[in-house]
Amino acid sequence: MALVGSGCSRSRNENSVDAATPRPASTAAPTTASASHRVDAESGAAPFPLDAGKLVLKLEKPIDLGPAGAVVATPIGALFRTRADDLVGHLLGAAPSAVPKRVGRLEESTDASGEEALASRAPPAAFTRGSYAYWVTHGKLVRRAFTFSPGVLPGALEVLATDALDGAQVAADTVIAGERRREVAIYIARAENKMDERRARVWIEGAGTAALSSEGSGASSVALAPSHAGLVAVMLDLRAAMSPVHARIIEVGESGPVRLGADVVVFVGPSPEGRTEVAAASSSEGPIAFIPFAQDTSSFGLASLVIGHEPRLDAKVQWRLYPNGLEPAPVAGAALCGRTWVAYARPTASAPASPHVLVLASVEKGAFGPELTAAQGFDFMSVSLAPREDGGAWLVWVGNGRSWIRAVRCG
After folding, report:
1. Which residues pair with 330 in a beta bridge?
2. Backbone angles phi, psi at 47, to 5 degrees
3. pLDDT of 263-302, one tens digit each?
4. Is residue 1 part of a domain?
5. pLDDT (tens digit, 9 = 90+) per residue, 213-267?
6. Which of 70, 196, 210, 230 is placed for a possible disulfide with 81 were both Cys, Cβ 3.0 to 4.6 Å?
7. How far apart are CA 135 and CA 122, in angstroms?
8. Cβ(221)–Cβ(277) below 8 Å
């Protein structure tokens, strides 16, 4: 997301490692709770919190899903958005399985053409509890139904809006409104001309789209999290000199358009230094947003913003500083095993050639807890978490040139 200082951390080791050669995360990632690397003494930063054996998570062996692609975690496995805008799932079920079953369009394909179809640099889809996948392609917000049922192909491609910004991620969820289940998706709309803002919009099943960003504000990244009042949309607005973070309640009824609460600026971050994505998760205090930011001119890290059930000005902000900058700086949050957890990649030390690590950390009232290492290596491009019915979750990431999934169990 940002590169900080003259010794910026890069996504590839330019000195001693052949970056074109993938490093299997399974050989480096521990299967039980372990201490993360400490920051080297030269960095001047405080050591990262060590796992003192009090974490309530256990990690199963990572599974190699295939080439680096547009893949996202779901409650029963992983879902790839293919290069042809189709869907391919890796079914693992509610409990971990030794071998995932490929389902969808390439169900029986194990040859090179099938692998090539999975290799994509596009953003992954957003998958909902209603079994729909949402994404943007060719300027359109689209979705397909996907049930993860062997022998059942993905649903037809549905076009939901024609003003979407290519390359932007989508956030979506399924809401129970009375006796109805309704799908909700938020996305970034293209600016109509050079002087206009790129704004967030909301689509709801049965009522079409509506403006989500208020007049005069914009959006570059969006996230959704459940709250007592319905959903809370979090919108990051990257500008030349600052990065306002907006939050807005979305209320969903049994029919008709959504009802929007006030558009509240909950935090104003620094000027952007690269592409930055926002993530969000639920907690007992209400939604929490996670944003990789430069805290100042010489430090970079992950900010947690306690949005609360009712968004308010000056949200409480706490930091997990990294030894150096990182781009991309993937992050994902979810409620699992009775707590809120965040997954993120960071450098292990301040040197530009330092390896990276993918970790899980608990979050309590916005404060970051000890880290649990999930994978080590380079080039972590994306990460996602999806809670399972048993209380655990699936952790999916793209790193070391491959796509991976790992079961997270409650200890």
Report:
1. none
2. -60, 150
3. 999 999 888 877 899 999 999 999 999 999 988 888 999 9
4. no
5. 999 899 999 999 999 878 999 999 999 889 999 999 999 999 999 999 999 999 9
6. 70
7. 10
8. yes
Question: Does the pTM exceed 0.90?
Answer: no
**Average pLDDT of the chain to the nearest whole number:** 85
220 lies in a domain?
yes
Looking at the structure of the chain, the number of domains it has is 1
Cβ-count burial 64-88 (b if 16+ within 10 Å, e if not): ebbbbbbbbbbbbbbbbbbeebbbb
Q: Which amino acid is at 320?
A: R
- What's the domain range around 268? 25-410
* Peptide bond just before 328 cis, omega within 30 deg: yes
Q: Is residue 207 part of a domain?
A: yes
